[in-house]
Amino acid sequence: MGFARRLTDEHPTKFLFSSCYNLAAMIYLDYSATTPVDSRVLDAMAPYFAASFGNPSSVHRFGQVAESAIDSARESIARLLNCKPDEIVFTSCGSESDNLAIRGAAYAMRDRTGANWILASRAEHPAVTKTLLHLEKYEGFLIEWLDVNEHGMVTPEIVSNAICNNTAIVSVMYANNEIGTINPIKAIAEICRANNVLFHTDAVQAAAYLPVDVQALGVDMMSLGAHKFYGPKGVGALYVRKGTPLVSHLTGGGQEFNLRAGTQNVPYIVGFAEALRLTNEERDQRVAHVQPLRDRIIGSVLETVPDSRLTGDIESRLPHHASFAFEDVDGNLLLTLLDAAGFACSSGSACKTGNPEPSEVMNAIGLSREWGLGSLRVTLGRDTTPEHVDSFLNISPGLIEKARKLK
Amino acid sequence: MKKVVVAMSGGVDSSVAATLLKEQGYEVIGMMLRLWSEPGREDSNRCCTPDSMAQARRVAAKLDIPFYVIDAKDVFRESVVEYFLSGYARGETPNPCLVCNQKIRWTFLLGHALALGAEYMATGHYVRVRNSEDGHQLLRAVDKSKDQSYVLHVLNQNKLKHALFPVGDYPKPEIRAIAEKHGLPTASRKDSQDLCFLAGEDYRIFLQRNAAEILKPGEIVTRDGKSIGMHNGLANYTIGQRKGLNIASPIPLYVLGKNAEDNTVIVGAQEELGSRELTARDVNWLSGEIPREPFRAEVKIRYTAKEAEALITPTGENQAQVQFDAPQRDVTVGQAAVFYQGDVVLGGGIII
Fold this sequence. Notes:
- The complex is a heterodimer.
- Chain A is of the alpha/beta class.
- Chain A has two domains: 152 residues, Aspartate Aminotransferase, domain 1, CATH 3.90.1150.10; 240 residues, 3-Layer(aba) Sandwich (Aspartate Aminotransferase, domain 2), CATH 3.40.640.
- Chain A contains 15 helices and twelve strands.
- A seven-stranded mixed sheet of chain A has the order 2-8-7-6-5-3-4, sandwiched between helices. A three-stranded antiparallel sheet of chain A has the order 9-10-12.
- By secondary structure, chain B is α/β, with parallel strands linked by helices.
- In chain B, the strands form three sheets. In chain B, strands 12-15-14-13-16-17 form a six-stranded antiparallel barrel.
- In chain B, a hairpin with a 4-residue loop joins strand 8 and strand 9.
- In chain B, helix 1 runs parallel beside helix 2 and helix 3 packs antiparallel against helix 4.
- The chains are: A alpha/beta, B alpha/beta.
- Chains A and B meet through helix 12 of A and strand 2, helix 2, strand 3 and helix 4 of B.
């Protein structure tokens, strides 16, 4: 019995699908977009909606119970990240964590040292790139975009060549959402430390499968979002190494060590902690479950589909992540055909308005428009079975050719 | 369950079309085409503004059907916009909606629908299809005031085979009532002569921006060739036009014709307008067979024109001669002449 089967039996993931979209008959292959909430996580969250509903900032016992719940969550996460509880700041999502890290550190560093250069890779998530463009346009910071290699990787050499004594922050994602490439975070962190530069990593995609020990990684700040690892949407966290200068960008009450105002989302924070705990506990099994399936997908697609290529690094790659580019295929149309055939996947150029453009990541790894518009991302998860993979591999080459012809 | 793709616009007609098909037990998929707009005006194509797209998406969600947007920008520009520009360059008054229905809706989109495994494609057009052993007939809508068969005379047996037009069986007020009952949008897109890609502007402004070279000034002449003024490009004039000629004349002057060869606009008195006959090219016969004998039919020479009795004589090379019982005003080169017998659309072609 496979890992997926066993997990599903013991902890059935409840999909409350509406009938006519017929989601129950669909095969979900988009776990990098989001994951279903683990039933054990739901159970952990349940008491904090109505029974223990207090405001953690309140003095009375209702407040104390709620406060204790988030303190426990913080301690649990701190153990998993190998840091102190007061180095964890809860936010509303991974994007907010990125915003807090970059804006907060940019202002604080300029205040403290005058440094106003920020280095970030061209393949970062928009939560990072758009934030930086904002800082450049409205706040006068100087942004230097780090090139990536053809597999979308930021090499330590690229960072050490770009870093200088006016550099305030370096931000490089742990693993890429579109193409799955894992960056050499530890080596980049060492370069930053040697140059007294703050290093932030967006680990939103990575946390589902990669170790998140911040001491081993050597990062100063790290963004996380719970819904990528079977936790709820609407809650994230930022690890902030003690002593890292940071200015709050959401001001108000003194919650989250004066770094993020607003009454904490107690049940979601509890859910975050439980989801991360389970992820850590089951990491090896989860990797062992998805990786062989992913390898079959990569091998089979490249073998059977003409004019196809893998995007991202083949070795240094998230274990559940397969991504491709197909020449002269409208990626959006391919997603439509796949969806109609019962497979939920994703594409770097995906958009719901029929205006496809190659993503920044496709441009950054040097793909031409003909290839960049034809990207496909297939990401696996706990409920993916070998049968799912078989039927995907049976049907997708034909659909890719169909999309190529219809274009 | 039979699968049907409904071309949705977010408006009342296509929304009700999807609703009716769902009630009839079809497996319905909503689709919308992303059409071409001028660079920098991407959000202003009347057929697919962000608003109408959001509206269509909401309708699909309400109906519990999947919804996809298909990129048709390139094929639309290559076929429809090119047709529009080259028509004006030849001194004609083209009707790009015909080409859109033929090449975009009922070829490009139909191809996508079939690729998705659908057997049928439906739109919110007010027309009907009658299926018999002899084939498929295109009929006018029940609601004559809303009938859109003029723009769909370009279909053929192969396309009609897959075509469903659920709203053609109802009067418009009933369609609106059905929409209301289901909590769907009840507003129609304004029945406008404006083309979707003109972004609400006059076509002349579009031509100036996109094909200024075809707007060559030339002479305005009378039927006997006398030059009586200047025009600023053939495309700026249409047959029957009276305003904007800027010629002092004892009698009101009307545009009688345009001559692309010597770039002249021909004008004359109102009595001179009108002709008893026309020739149509690229004639499409919906039955798939060219009639062997001349026959009588009612002919419509514009989307909004009233039908006129005529004798039609099919001639070689997909052409047809049309002889009207009474002279017709505003026979315009580039518009379609569509032939009817009662409610049945027999075919039609482009006036030359």
